[in-house]
Design a protein that fits this description.
The complex is a heterodimer of chains A (158) and B (618). Chain A is globular. Chain A contains eight helices and no strands. Chain A has two domains: 2-34, no CATH class; 77-157, no CATH class. Chain A has 158 residues and is an all-alpha fold. Chain B is an alpha+beta fold. Chain B folds into four domains: 19-113, no CATH class; 126-298, no CATH class; 309-380, no CATH class; 401-617, monomeric porin ompg (Porin, Beta Barrel). Chain B is globular. Classes of the chains: A mainly alpha (158), B alpha+beta (618). Chains A and B meet through α1, α2, α3, α4 and α5 of A and β5, α8, β6, α9 and α15 of B.
């Protein structure tokens, strides 16, 4: 009789001492047994296709590393920031401001005095940036660059 | 007098010259230097007091005996670095220290001979090191212990681009294809290797704040430039290494302490945590070591969302809920009292809520993506900033709550037999403990042991809770989480003959909880119970029942009234109902008065128990 209890205890103890494998969402112990899933680890799959496709807006599969720390995403700079923050970026642009939008401005080298213009241009062109929910991170970065090129204040950055 | 003076002078001369000689006596002393021990991750074993390195990769050591012999390892490193200067690029922190002690002549990193290392270092541009603490989230009790990792804050970093800083994180490299039991077993007993990884902060924020809904506390440390450099060099040394990952002591929080000790060996943080390391406890000791300059709060997406809902006018709640449902298309814009205008505020909450539920329920992307985009499109047509204020910083941080080790002494009566009770609870937090700094409605108890000295002169194990995890998350119009409880332990059960043997028991319950006006909370769970012991008729009992309760949190006191009703469905045919009332009055954060009354009805008999006592937390 002790064995089922012991197993139960082991599993429950294991889940309660989580944070062990916190290299990605769904990696943690708690998230495996107690995130409302039926015991199947609900981890996010990294879209590591060597940069051939960014992930879509609102993708659940938005580029987090899963639990395999040996895999790397082959993006740098603004591509990387956009790739990893698709949901939040679209939200920030719709609102006209936010931490991720500010971070993208920073990584694109926009000077503080031009950042409000950058945010305004992106907000005003939301539909151009997000024509549908399948738009990828590369497309968004390209659109951002072309929007900047067509703006008097921001053209100097591209 | 002359003789003494000569001896003194010779001694001074020797001490002054000693580093240059690198003589054997010196090697021995240096091999027990805290800096050397920290860099090689040596810890004194609790069992035999011997030094053993916690790194489990062979190529971390240059000597065959390196794992257990610091002196041998030191000699091997000196030889190795002299013979093969490129080896210094693999172990730059060690090389730097040995060079500063005069034990090696040239330092490769100074000579610019380590291009890979230099390229890696360029990622950082360090100004400060921050300790990042993702805190607990209710309904994920596993998160209650917290996690720790480091962030390397860059020169000229601003608040707006904090996300770009690199982080240093330690975690287990798990294999998701392992069946669950293997997963649990390997995790507990070191089957998964722990590795250190470096990645931008935005990836960690996404993981903790967005996916796991955990608030994050950022503690800026006062490590100086030299210490930061040493920490980075040591991180480089550890990148290819792996550690056998044990939950109880060698987990993430502990590994971060080893990095801090390597940066500033005088801290000796790892000395305080040899048997078990709860991240929030290690955080306390870091705060107590005068390492912290400044603390920032980063609310999770869930916390922000809840606070936005509080700011959202109630008249807009139905509209917002309708907007959040991905099955609904956006309603036409009416402008009369019955149809409030779709405001920016309503759209923002609707979007956040929709994304929150999509994440929680792991909805397929196709079912929600278009609806989410439609909400954003509508929001983008409004030219106004967000109407919401950010959530306030909690008055009590997670590392400022009550301490986790609890001892209680009480006096009571069990069916007319007086007893004195000693309770020891190694971890972690009870529903009756002060809730400041802890998620409300959550409880984790681990190895709680009650010893009773009874009036009859006998000393007995009164009860033992192996593990109790309770998560009572209130439901409302916007959030509908489940409440649940798991309890495994040895509990005394009153039998018909008046005996009360200790019975191994497993309870699992699931249900709902609601918050009432003020600080009241009620819950109702459907529970199943399994018990097995030879004194039970049929040797076992399987029961189903209901478990309901009422919690109240006052300024200085708390109470919990609960009723459990169980009916056996197999084995020992009986019913077992228990009414339990517990009260705690807090004399301080770590000292409370406790009282308990319970009445049990089973098979036509009534049994009573009560006690009154004091609790201390360390």
């Amino acid at each position: 009789m002790m064995r089922p209890i012991l197993t139960g205890l082991v599993m429950l103890t294991a889940s309660s001492f989580a944070m062990a494998s916190d290299t990605g969402p769904g990696c943690g112990w708690g998230s495996m047994l107690f995130k409302g899933q039926s015991g199947v680890a609900s981890h996010v799959v990294a879209a590591t296709t060597n940069g051939t496709s960014g992930n879509n807006t609102f993708g659940m599969t938005s580029g987090t590393n899963g639990c395999d720390t040996s895999r790397t995403i082959n993006y740098t700079g603004s591509n990387a920031v956009v790739f990893h923050n698709m949901d939040r970026l679209s939200n920030d642009i719709a609102k006209g401001d936010g931490e991720v939008l500010s971070t993208v401005a920073s990584v694109m080298g926009i000077q503080p005095e031009d950042v409000p213009a950058f945010k305004r241009v992106m907000h005003d062109n939301f539909n151009t940036l997000y024509p549908n929910s399948d738009v990828t991170s590369e497309q968004i970065v390209q659109t951002m660059v072309s929007l900047m090129a067509n703006d008097r204040t921001l053209a100097k950055y591209v | 007098m002359n003789h003494t003076l000569t001896t003194l002078l010779s001694l001074l001369l020797f001490l002054h010259m000693a580093p240059a000689f690198g003589g054997p006596g010196n090697i021995s002393a240096l091999s027990s230097d805290p800096q050397w021990l920290a860099l090689l991750q040596y810890q004194r074993s609790d069992w035999d007091g011997a030094l053993r390195s916690e790194v489990d990769s062979d190529d971390f050591f240059l000597s065959d005996r390196g794992k257990v012999d610091p002196e041998d390892e030191l000699l091997a490193n000196i030889r190795g670095f002299e013979q093969k200067p490129d080896l210094q690029c693999r172990f730059p922190a060690r090389a730097q220290w040995l060079h500063s002690q005069g034990l090696i002549k040239t330092l490769s990193i100074d000579e610019g001979h380590c291009p890979e290392l230099n390229q890696w270092l360029q990622k950082f541009e360090p100004e400060y090191i921050s300790l990042i603490f993702p805190a607990a989230y209710l309904n994920s009790p596993s998160s209650m212990f917290g996690h720790l990792f480091l962030r390397v804050d860059q020169k000229n970093q601003r608040d707006e681009n904090r996300l770009l800083a690199q982080t240093i994180n330690f975690a287990a490299n798990v294999n998701h294809d392992d069946p669950e039991l293997i997963y649990a077993y390997r995790g507990l007993f070191g089957g998964y290797p722990g590795v250190i990884s470096v990645m931008p902060y935005y990836q960690k924020v996404k993981e903790y704040s967005e996916v796991e809904n955990r608030d994050i506390w950022e503690y800026r440390l006062n490590l100086n430039a030299e210490e930061i450099h040493r920490l980075l060099l040591h991180t480089w040394e550890l990148l290819p290494a792996h550690f056998d990952y044990f939950f109880f002591d060698e987990n993430c929080a502990y590994r971060i302490l080893t990095l801090l000790d390597a940066a500033r060996p005088s801290l000796q943080l790892t000395q305080q945590f040899s048997t078990y390391a709860i991240p929030s406890d290690t955080l306390r000791s870091i705060v107590a070591s005068d390492l912290v300059n400044e603390v920032r709060y980063r609310p999770s997406m869930a916390t922000e969302l809840k606070y936005k809902i509080e700011q959202l006018s109630e008249s807009l709640h139905p509209l917002t809920l309708a907007l959040a449902d991905p099955g609904n298309t956006l309603p036409e814009q009416h402008h009369d009292e019955n149809h409030p205008a779709i405001t920016a505020g309503a759209l923002e909450v609707a979007f956040d809520l929709q994304r929150y539920h999509a994440q929680q329920q792991q909805l397929p992307r196709s079912s929600v993506a278009d609806a989410s985009l439609a909400l954003l499109k509508k929001r983008s047509e409004i030219n106004a900033p967000s109407p919401y204020r950010p959530p306030p910083v909690p008055a009590v941080r997670d590392d400022e709550g009550h301490r986790t080790f609890q001892v209680a002494l009480s006096q009571g009566q069990n069916e007319d037999v007086e007893f004195t009770l000693l309770r020891i609870r190694p971890a972690y937090h009870d529903l009756l403990d002060p809730s400041a700094g802890y998620p409300e409605g959550a409880q984790i108890k681990f190895l709680e042991t009650d010893l009773a000295l009874r009036e009859t002169g006998t000393l007995r194990l009164e009860r033992f809770t192996g593990l109790n995890i309770t998560s009572l998350t209130p439901r409302d119009a916007f959030f509908k989480p489940l409440s649940w409880r798991v309890d495994a332990g040895l509990y005394r059960k009153y039998l018909a003959d008046g005996d009360d043997p200790l019975i191994p028991t497993l309870n699992v319950g699931i249900g709902h909880s609601y918050r009432l006006a003020g600080q009241h909370q009620v819950y109702l769970l459907a529970e199943s119970q399994l018990q097995h012991q030879h004194s039970l008729p049929s040797n076992y009992a399987a029961s189903l029942g209901l478990h309901g309760g009422w919690l109240f949190r006052g300024e200085n006191w708390q109470q919990h009234l609960s009723l459990q009703m169980n009916e056996a469905v197999a084995g020992y045919d009986h019913h077992y109902h228990q009414l339990n009332w517990e009260v705690s009055y807090h004399l301080g954060l770590n000292l409370s008065l406790i009282g308990q009354l319970s009445a049990t009805a089973t098979e036509g008999n009534w049994f009573h128990q009560q006690r009154l006592g004091l609790e201390w937390r360390f």
